[in-house]
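Final report, section 2: Outcomes. Of the targets proposed, Guanine nucleotide-binding protein-like 1 is the one most frequently requested by collaborating groups, and we therefore present its record in full.
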Amino acid sequence: MAPEEEEEEEEEDEEQSGGGQEEEEEEEYGAGGAPTQWERYRHGVLTIGCVGLPNAGKSSVLNAVLGRKAVSVSRTPGHTRYFQTHFLTPNVRLCDCPGLVFPSRAPRELQVLAGVYPISQLQEPYSAVGFLASRLPLPSLLGLRPPTNPAGWTAWDICEAWAEKRGYRTARAARHDVYRAANSILRMAASGQLLLQMEPPGYSNQCAHWRSHPDTSGLRSLLVSGPTPPPPDGRADSTSASGDSEGEEPDESPPPAGRSANPFALLGEDEC
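The predicted structure is given below as tokens.
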């Protein structure tokens, strides 16, 4: 083979190898040099994120794991508005993000009662009250007066009767503040004071199967037995008896000083 042909083949091989490196770099890094592939334990830190619908308890879970109030919590959906990170240990990082609202087939009234949609953003709350009243006996639960309408209760009648009972009045005309009463009923439902429960999809067709399920019987036994009482302590009984007779309060040992509220704090320390 002639030397010129060998040089041409070497140049072609170099071009092919160089082009492959460029393609690999393009696959690893996108626009702006940002990595496009997922990297596990980047910079030696494990990142754990809380993702879910608004008002699902993501911030509360993060505070419980950290053992302190690190992020603000509220009953109002959409309270968390910024991406926040907190280190559980030097190698474990927790992330709290705002709630993600996905396209849902559930009606707006059910989203409000589930705490996903903010009640303050409702322009017309009476349909949600009607949705709730069609599934719960609101007049008897709220102790409302009998309806004046012979056809029965409507969502407006329930709100008006609740405004009359609670004393909700408008500022100018001093009429019953029906809008405020509707918001009050919806907030009671969102906070659990008015309990709305629904059966899972397909439960009616398999009702006998789920009632005879082993897990159902186990849960029923736990509900009947109630909470487990604390184990008896003879020294505690003698202390309380002596305290009653002598009028002295039992000694309470204070918690050890310097103890961290985070149960995972020791995971990041070197034991060697």
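Residues 3-28 form the longest helix (26 residues).
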